[in-house]
Design a protein that fits this description.
Four copies of one chain form a homotetramer. Chain A is α+β, with helices and mostly antiparallel strands. In chain A, 29% of the residues lie in helices and 23% in strands. A five-stranded antiparallel sheet of chain A has the order 1-2-3-7-4, covered by helices on one side. A five-stranded antiparallel sheet of chain A has the order 9-8-10-16-11. In chain A, strand 8 and strand 9 form a beta hairpin. Chains in contact: A-B, A-C, A-D, B-C, B-D, C-D.
Chain lengths: 366, 366, 366, 366
């Protein structure tokens, strides 16, 4: 409970930042999916630390092994187990954390909830936890691609107060990956990198916004009233560490429009029903309408600072904590594959749910 | 699947806008809760149409009956069934809907997903569906109140572009209910009402923002990594019709702060560990930290307009549709009890989950 | 939790024997299923008391209303709500039950678990609870019939120690319904009826065994390792009041055979792979193999006796209780439609799960 | 879906007989449970092949590693990952299986369901799959022992037609483990061993019956109407490979008793309400009543024979298959720890559910 996600395509993740390793079990993967460990590793490499000079210099190879569920290059339909051993274990970097709570981290709430925590690192609240999500997301993205040429593309639109110009173009993976900051607008990407470097020099941190688009999605995904597509996406995104907000389509800015400005007019697009505009963000009444799915997620600045901060110790005494270690001044670029993964997990799950609910039976001529 | 919400305190809603009625089953309600039909009716009356001159003049009495699970004023621990018959059935108002899809409504996606829809009204996508949520929410709010004097309070902070001044005060229910627009700042409430009336005159509509706060919540609610408290709240809120966004604590604006500005410093508050500021919004690492829970939801303008709009018919031919009927120019005020209900459902569920996970056993002296 | 059954075709039942009524919500019913209230009422009439002179003379009309989810004779894909009001309320018949626990009933355990119970009758532990199951089962049986001409047939093979001769014939519904005892072997049925009447004269009761067969089931239903078809059937059957055992295929007697006697040899049956014998009962490795599904359920004798019995009162003092009222000396005949319903619910659910898991995607040529 | 079990104390297992390994993730384990890898290994050693001269001579060390969720000897409340690598890989022993379906095995149904199978061994249908269950069961049994001195004890009462005398004594673990056949009645155990050896000489196999008892269980576990304690136990037991039946208390034999013989009279046992007899098997109305829980499971004879058997190949052609390899002539002794594990998983889960449902809140003085 709490470490599984999805209904039919269901993942269960496990593992702390320090300890044996991190892993995921995918239960419900359709059989006969061609999948290789290289495809999984490709996505893990996008997520791991030490990719570029704007992320943490921590070296983590994050090498995945498929330990079950795949046979001769194809999924068996049985649970796919993926295992990534931990390495680079330096508990000494965390000595002070045993007795002091880091501000805006999960140390205090984990201790209060469970009465125990692995104080050698972030434990389960560490971003390492997301390895399992990205590994499973690689499988989900492969399914979407094969099943319907569906692309899930996330990228950064803002770092701190540096925002890329609005664009209706669906960026290519190459455009996103062209810069380590994963903003497909090169000039803005440059400025974002400068800002991250400047902030790092001060031992400070910044957050930002990720936008995610999905194209070629069929009509009909999403299950009202509670499992609306946007509701499940919102949960998926807010389950990612450091997120503070989610919006779909017009989002918060939609609330300052008149209905006559906001409504998406239905038109006939080459024989298919579509909408002239896409303020709905690809979802109406909780169900995909065939337009591009588009949503955004807000990330707070990294809580770890290389600065002195006031805090309390585990007995509640006020004290100070000097941040050290090798952390990211901005986690948002590395969150891009996580966002894509969570989106893909939601979409595969809803595809399967739709199939089960609406396509299992043919009562046609009877 | 899709019409149930919650894990341990689990509701299942049913019913369309036109047909027999609307109802909810609450499974997992703790036994011996004192609860009356009047307490449920009180919340339904806050939700129903026709409350004031800024909502739809449609008359719906929405009278609830408890059909199971309560005996001599107390819950039995068995499923609580609540039933609200439909009335005021005027299918003729919807004749055109049989053949034309209303823009930014769910007519098209329901038809595409299910291959059938109740074209006599919004069916399951109608706001009437939320009756079941509000009835169950009344029970959940009662539990929170009795269990820990926990208050869940939602109110409007913005209608269209009219926004109330920022305030850190937890408003009383009386302050919220003082105006039909449910904004606790009287001067702003006046302006909001004027705006709604003006927009209605044009057959147009507006959206807005609801803020929700919860006080006296214990530390420890929320289950990482997927069932974080904010993730489940985000899903709950985005499952409400007409919502486009969710943010907690600093939200989207938090992404333009530096880490050194954003971190919440831990302090000792009269012997208890707390935070000096609350940009986290009451949740850290997905778990409540004992501070006030605070989040906001964006609502789009009502899709129904009393205007002529372009659209397509069910065969995909482009046509026009003249809106008529008795709809709300702004649904946000009536959404206030829905937001509170969904929040309360999440919190009771997580309270029970926390109890089960962390308080079931005492391994203490062994 | 506890009052819902199924994963994709999911029912939630509510209602006590005394109070407003009994109902069920079916969530996940495929859209466009032709279904009428008469089809549901037909099955409810098979379940209700007062059908014949060997069941309780209690008159309960058990009239169902479909309150949502069906439009113009077809399912909408939204939750189907079915409501059966209670009637014939005679709480005076239960006065003593307020203070004394009936032996082998659920009075004591409900009181101990919940700290409260509706002492005006069996409450939620009453057989009236099964009304919701049978109503939902009628829908499930209709789906199976239309989808694959699948028949689910239950019947009594034993009452007390009177057992019908072994038969490999799949009985018709008419053969089952020919006798009020629902044993398709007329001579045995006669003896069973005599035994039930004799036992009733003594104020005593008897149990028996129901066998259930399903024909035309496709290969592939069931999800190892935990949701094997027989595991879900076992749960379904043991969830029926008064059941004490479940066996599939060779069952308990299979454990006294040698492997060489027990194995089902694969043969080619007109081009399809089948088995020569069916000791497996239609399931191998938890998955249906295309042979007839066959299983049996043991029912204990009715706990209610029209005799004086020793017991304790709610304070634990030893006392006596004189049974009265209008109860069934043998509930097994009325349990036949309940068994069929639970079996049908499991099968529809697994059909949908199989479709989702193994038929959602075509990775074929890629 | 299908490879997870439990609601609040939830396990997900993964792994095939041939491939990387076998594992389990336990999600929802209460924090601060003292647990060591040795306690887990102890139970795995009871399950593994090669323990004695009546089981398969296959050597599998089945060495477990805890890869997450435990810190300094205590559970963290986060997912506990346990990993057991595969070894002794001899795919050549299975060459023929690639093209022929073994009778009464899962080869055919897996191939038919998934369109693919790992033909190098039993894959997911192999008994190796139960390693994950037993590892998780060791944790569950530890919880029950610490929480309430609850003992879960399974043992063999019958092998083929050799049955131990009825006994009301709760056997000790030492008595069960005294003989490799795990029957606590020494004289019968001897005969069972002789029978197994005789059958093995013929290349044949036998099944049997396991009885399981639980003592010190509190009143109140089980959730009507669907998640009755016996229903969840039945599912748990029928999910174990090679099982064909389940009965609780009087079981199938209860159906030949009169109600007046079968009812369990309530009495006062030193100030606590109990029953004079225990035909209910410790459960009434689906809820534990404080008496000893007692149930039995039927196992079919092992499907693998060292004999020539008729079968079909994957194209449906009739052919023959000569069994070889190192299989168990009777799997029932090794199933004893599996039965205990599944029972313990159900009981911990229901303990937590009961706590959540009935003990989360105190509405007492309000």
């Amino acid at each position: 409970m709490g470490n599984s996600f999805g209904t039919l395509f269901r993942i269960s993740t496990w593992g702390e930042s320090h300890g044996g390793g991190i892993g995921v079990v995918i239960d419900g993967c359709p059989p006969r999916l061609p999948i290789t460990v290289e495809e999984i590793q490709f996505e893990l490499d996008r997520r791991r630390p030490g990719q570029s000079d704007i992320t943490t210099p921590r070296k983590e190879s994050d090498t995945a092994t498929i330990v079950s569920g795949v046979f001769e290059g194809q999924s068996l339909g049985t649970p796919i187990g993926i295992y990534v051993p931990n390495g680079d274990h330096r508990p000494s970097a965390y000595t002070e954390m045993k007795d002091k709570f880091r501000p805006s981290h999960a140390d205090f709430t984990y201790q209060a909830k469970f009465g125990i925590r692995n104080h050698e690192g972030g434990g389960r609240s560490s971003a390492r936890e997301t390895i399992g999500r990205v590994a499973a997301g690689a499988v989900a993205k492969k399914i979407l691609k094969l099943a319907g040429d569906i692309d899930v593309r996330a990228y950064i639109t803002r770092v701190h107060d540096i925002e890329m110009p609005a664009s209706s173009v669906f960026p290519t993976l190459e455009q996103v990956e062209a810069s380590p900051v994963r903003c497909p607008h090169p000039a803005t990407a440059e400025k974002m990198i400068e800002r991250i470097k400047a902030v790092r020099k001060d031992g400070d941190s910044v957050g930002g916004i990720i936008e995610c688009r999905v194209r070629n999605l069929p009509v009909g995904l999403g299950v009202p009233v509670f499992d609306r597509l946007e509701a499940d996406l919102a949960k998926a995104m807010l389950s990612i560490p450091a997120t503070k907000g989610f919006e779909i389509g017009s989002g918060f800015s939609g609330s300052v429009q008149l209905g006559s400005e906001h409504n998406d007019i239905f038109i006939n697009k080459d024989g298919k029903i579509g909408t002239e505009t896409n303020r709905s963000g690809g979802v109406q009444g909780g169900i995909s309408n065939g337009e591009e799915l588009i949503f955004r997620i807000a990330f707070k600045p990294t809580a770890t600072l290389i600065q002195n901060q006031r805090t309390v110790d585990t007995d509640g005494n006020e004290t100070e904590l000097m941040g050290r270690g090798r952390h990211d001044p901005c986690v948002v670029p590395r969150a891009v594959p996580i966002v894509e993964s969570m989106a893909a997990l939601v979409l595969v799950d809803h595809w399967m749910r739709h199939q089960a609910h609406c396509q299992s039976f043919d009562f046609g001529g009877k």
